[in-house]
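Figure 3 (text version): structure tokens given as input.
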């Protein structure tokens, strides 16, 4: 079976990528022959030179020898206006109807046709099967504003299926202004962005999308987010390709992540405790139940039933409070001072991070022994080094003095 050769005209210059020969420089007006189509990149032949160029730089055209013989029944692009998509299918020809049907996800019971290379018994999961199937979808037309064209390809990812209720103008990278960068990983970068038309804030996650393995990974992430969408998960708003990345537009969670929140809570509790100590008062019962969170996310320290003013001495010679938040030295030396509060706060922060007590034991004696042996639970690796250092210093505050008093 002979494959029909397709030709495309270059609509704007592309200089390639310096130092990477797989990307082919092209100039406006040149005619290239298509070898392979992907979502973002087309592999083309330009006078014997083969390389990748951005799909957005190309526009389909008739073969050079047939410039004056364009037949309506041989055109492989069929334009569909935005108004037609929105008002129904009665105004469309059968070809257009078939194109719109491609938008609707296939039902689970749909079978693969005999020409597919993957059988119903293939071990590949549903996502991989759908990705590898040859499928026709519609995409924004590059030559006609507010129109869509039919594209046939061997790889069409989920996010590329435009939904009827999805606004095409939201699927453009230039429609967003980058406010700041949140962070970067091995395969993605995350930014706070503002939608230029509305001023809405979103998070843009740019995921690698050049190699086939990148595409499989990114499309699976999109499919997973769509499948698990709920009030408990970050919402995926839109997704679209840009250069060598897939851009995921996500809802913006103004409160930040858990790591940021832990730092904020930690700093506020420290300030509250410092305020008490600056007035010569030891709280003596620092625990989660006595730390209160206000509507505006500020912290307030409460329950001063056991608090005491130290006055002219640097400790209070009576141990009271909640035992699991007492330092072992409080049990041993029967006195409480400012360090008692600091130790208890260190335990609270440790619990806030890990959900467990750093020296939890079955008895006071066993707890004292764990502290003397510096046998605390370990903070997770993801905890920032600065926070880890501070918390560890707080829960070991008594260690040196206790050992020196018991040698």
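Below: residues designed for each position.
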């Amino acid at each position: 079976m002979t494959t029909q050769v397709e030709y495309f005209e270059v609509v704007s210059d592309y200089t390639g990528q310096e130092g990477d020969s797989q990307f082919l420089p092209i100039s406006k007006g040149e005619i290239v022959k298509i070898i392979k189509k992907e979502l973002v990149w087309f592999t083309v032949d330009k006078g014997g030179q083969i390389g990748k160029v951005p799909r957005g730089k190309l526009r389909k055209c008739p073969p050079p020898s047939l410039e004056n013989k364009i037949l309506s029944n041989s055109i492989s692009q069929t334009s569909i206006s935005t108004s037609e998509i929105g008002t129904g299918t009665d105004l469309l020809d059968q070809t257009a109807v078939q194109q719109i049907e491609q938008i609707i996800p296939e039902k689970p019971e749909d079978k693969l046709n005999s020409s597919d290379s993957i059988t119903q018994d293939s071990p590949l999961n549903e996502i991989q099967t759908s990705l590898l199937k040859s499928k026709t979808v519609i995409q924004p037309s590059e030559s006609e504003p507010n129109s869509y064209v039919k594209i046939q390809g061997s790889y069409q990812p989920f996010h590329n299926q435009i939904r009827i209720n999805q606004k095409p103008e939201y699927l453009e990278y230039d429609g967003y202004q980058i406010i700041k960068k949140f962070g970067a990983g091995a395969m993605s970068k995350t930014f706070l962005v503002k939608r230029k038309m509305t001023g809405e804030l979103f998070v843009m996650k740019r995921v690698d999308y050049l190699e086939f393995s990148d595409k499989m990974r990114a499309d699976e992430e999109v499919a997973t987010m769509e499948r698990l969408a709920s009030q408990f998960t970050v919402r995926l708003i839109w997704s679209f390709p840009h250069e060598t990345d897939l851009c995921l537009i996500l809802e913006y969670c103004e409160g930040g992540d858990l790591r940021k929140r832990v730092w904020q809570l930690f700093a506020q509790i420290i300030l509250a405790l410092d305020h008490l100590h600056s007035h010569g008062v030891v709280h003596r019962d620092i625990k989660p139940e006595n730390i209160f969170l206000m509507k505006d996310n500020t912290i307030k320290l409460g329950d001063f039933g056991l608090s005491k003013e130290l006055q002219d001495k640097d400790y209070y010679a009576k141990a009271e409070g909640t035992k699991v938040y007492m330092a072992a030295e409080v049990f041993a030396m029967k006195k409480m001072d400012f360090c008692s509060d600091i130790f208890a706060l260190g335990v609270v922060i440790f619990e806030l991070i890990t959900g467990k007590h750093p020296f939890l034991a079955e008895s006071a004696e066993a707890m004292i022994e764990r502290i003397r042996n510096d046998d605390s639970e370990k903070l997770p690796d993801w905890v920032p080094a600065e926070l880890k250092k501070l918390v560890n210093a707080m829960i070991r505050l008594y260690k040196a003095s206790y050992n020196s008093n018991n040698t």
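The chain is about 25% helix and 20% strand.
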